[in-house]
């Protein structure tokens, strides 16, 4: 066995296991972990690695041996299995064998997909609009039926909506980022699809005339948010829909969800696949938004899940990349029949880091033959996009949304509160020096070296990786304030894009990469020549940060770079190695 997983924590195991490519060896590692600490995160990590090297295996039923396969392996093997009889046999085999709930759900889900794709004569199955209670009178909990009952038939969808969060009376930065990104996306969208029509013609423009272009719609909900209407238009919105009410000064789940959903559906309800009621609105003529963006803040995460569920669609959370393109899909759940392909246009591709720590996933929200999923929704990690320069000359429409808010929506009130320290903002500096677990030999001295290097620049700040925040390091009081969570950089921390990013003693897990990958120049210092951060650094210095950082500090102060550069082949003395510059490659970025 290449390594013993019980000797590493999850952050250390990720870089170590990336070189193991033998599925049998990975399975041995998995069994060792299960027999030892059996940490769910580690089990998921190893299973995802196994999945990477078994995804191209044939999925014939005869090759599926459930008793020797993990749930991840079973899920992979089922992807190309379309025979209902074989799937039923596998389900019975699992029930009479290990009887694992996860495996049974995978087989049952595949069986449902295959049986639901075609009738026996090859015709598409008819839509069953009966309520769950009518379809399953024998069940005590019929609402748990898997089939959705609120989806629309031939629904009309247009525009990209952006929920613009405010805090302490001001637009949060990520709201501005999303408006700029939405403007970019819809400008490109209109250049590609404008005027083509997609079954949603009849859009009503700002002047009341029909038009082909789709728009960016900013949503403002709260107390005294009307003042931001002109600002969101200047930042890229075509329409600002505003609901202002003093009772909304604080975010509350019920009223905010009801208001945003009422805006999105224009007051209509969706019953049995049909639109019921609703308002005539001069600025729009469609059932629901085509796309909906939310901030991945504490409140934004809550609201995005609630709204998308109420609008009967899905959500890709914590995204750091967005683009719109077509996608060819062969999954029979989406195409309606096994063996066929279908091209989906106007698909919002929503990129987010994998839980495995190695790759990005691209999430798609696609229609089924029996139902449509709109809005295609995503929440966006703050700092993922640039804040656009406002254009005060931009014109748009401001819509005042009206809805009676029942008192019972405000059953919870805040009597007294204290405002927490807003923490440290690392995003506005020219230089960021970040340190990770590599300071473990002398944590306090390692942090001092990072501070000294930052002090050598005119505008620099110090950040840390998650390993420092969650680790059990002991720091002296004079540097301890620099090790707290408010300085963490990464998926669950801050996202920065300075002119220069120095990463010292950081391995480069994707969670950290998300937080700094847009930096103009990345310099990494690490003793491990195979550290993952090397793959997306501009300059990599192989060496001990306790030796390298002081020399970098001297060079900055002197205004000269004292290091020589060497190719990989020429560097043989084990000292600091600069050069072998590797600009970040595609695949992890738009």
Automatic annotation (TrEMBL):
SUPFAM superfamilies on file: Adenine nucleotide alpha hydrolases-like, DHS-like NAD/FAD-binding domain
Biased composition (Basic and acidic residues): 127-143, 579-590
GO molecular function, one term: flavin adenine dinucleotide binding
Residue ranges with Acidic residues bias: 117-126
InterPro entries named in the record: DHS-like_NAD/FAD-binding_dom, ETF_a/b_N, ETF_a/FixB, ETF_asu_C, ETF_asu_C_CS, Rossmann-like_a/b/a_fold
Record field: compositional bias (Low complexity): 566-575
Domain Electron transfer flavoprotein alpha/beta-subunit N-terminal: start-end pairs: 160-414
Matching SMART domains: ETF
Swiss-Prot/TrEMBL keywords: Electron transport, FAD, Flavoprotein, Transport
BP GO terms, sorted: fatty acid beta-oxidation using acyl-CoA dehydrogenase
Region annotation (Disordered) ranges: 113-147, 566-590
UniProt family annotation: Belongs to the ETF alpha-subunit/FixB family.
Protein name, as recorded: Electron transfer flavoprotein alpha subunit apoprotein
């Amino acid at each position: 066995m290449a390594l013993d997983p019980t000797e590493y924590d999850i952050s250390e195991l990720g870089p170590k296991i990336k070189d193991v490519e033998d599925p049998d060896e990975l399975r041995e590692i998995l069994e060792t972990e299960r027999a030892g600490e059996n940490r769910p995160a580690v089990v998921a990590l190893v299973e995802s690695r196994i999945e990477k090297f078994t995804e191209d295996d044939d999925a014939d039923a005869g090759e599926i041996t459930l008793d020797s396969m993990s749930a991840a392996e079973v899920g992979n093997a089922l992807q190309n299995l379309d025979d209902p009889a074989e799937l039923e046999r596998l389900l019975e085999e699992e029930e009479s064998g290990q009887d694992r709930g996860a495996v049974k759900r995978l087989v049952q889900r595949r069986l449902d997909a295959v049986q639901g794709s075609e009738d026996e004569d090859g015709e598409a199955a008819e839509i069953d609009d009966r309520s769950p209670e009518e379809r399953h009178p024998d069940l005590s909990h019929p609402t748990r039926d898997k089939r959705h009952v609120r989806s629309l038939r031939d629904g009309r969808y247009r525009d990209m909506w952006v929920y613009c969060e405010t805090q302490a009376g001001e637009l949060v930065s990520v709201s501005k980022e999303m408006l700029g990104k939405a403007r970019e996306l819809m400008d490109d969208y209109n250049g590609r699809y404008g005027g083509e029509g997609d079954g949603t013609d009849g859009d009503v423009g700002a002047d009341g005339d029909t038009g082909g272009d789709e728009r960016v719609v900013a949503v403002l909900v709260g107390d005294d948010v009307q003042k931001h209407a002109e600002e969101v238009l200047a930042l890229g919105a075509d329409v600002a829909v505003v609901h202002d009410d003093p009772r909304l000064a604080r975010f509350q789940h019920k009223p905010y969800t009801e208001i945003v959903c009422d805006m999105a559906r224009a007051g209509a309800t969706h019953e049995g696949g049909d639109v019921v009621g609703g308002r005539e609105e001069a600025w729009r003529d469609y059932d629901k938004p085509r796309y909906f963006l939310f901030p991945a803040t504490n409140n934004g995460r809550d609201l995005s899940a609630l709204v998308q569920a109420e609008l009967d669609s899905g959500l890709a959370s914590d995204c750091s990349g967005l683009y719109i393109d077509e996608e060819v899909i062969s999954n029979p759940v989406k195409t309606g029949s096994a063996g066929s392909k279908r091209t989906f246009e106007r698909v919002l591709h929503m990129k987010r880091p994998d839980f495995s720590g190695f790759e990005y996933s691209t999430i798609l929200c696609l229609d089924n033959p029996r139902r449509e999923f709109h809005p295609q929704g995503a929440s966006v990690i703050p700092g993922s996009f640039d804040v656009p320069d406002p254009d005060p000359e931009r014109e748009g429409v401001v819509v005042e949304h009206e809805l009676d808010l029942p008192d019972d929506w405000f059953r919870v009130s805040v009597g007294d509160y204290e405002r927490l320290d807003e923490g440290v903002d690392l995003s506005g500096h020219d230089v960021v020096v970040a340190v990770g677990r590599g300071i473990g030999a002398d944590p306090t001295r390692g942090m001092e070296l990072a501070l000294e290097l930052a002090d050598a620049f005119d505008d620099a700040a110090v950040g840390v990786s998650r390993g420092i925040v969650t680790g059990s390091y002991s720091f002296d009081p004079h540097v301890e304030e620099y090790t707290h969570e408010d300085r963490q950089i990464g998926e669950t921390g801050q996202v920065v894009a300075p002119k220069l990013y120095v990463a010292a003693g950081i391995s480069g897990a994707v969670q950290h990469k998300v937080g700094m990958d847009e930096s103009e120049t990345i310099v990494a210092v690490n003793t491990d020549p195979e550290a993952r951060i090397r793959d997306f650094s501009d300059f990599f210095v192989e060496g001990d940060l306790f030796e390298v950082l002081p020399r970098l500090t001297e060079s900055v102060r002197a205004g000269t770079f004292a290091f020589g550069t060497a190719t990989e082949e020429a560097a043989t003395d084990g000292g600091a190695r600069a050069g072998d510059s590797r600009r970040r490659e595609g695949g992890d970025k738009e």
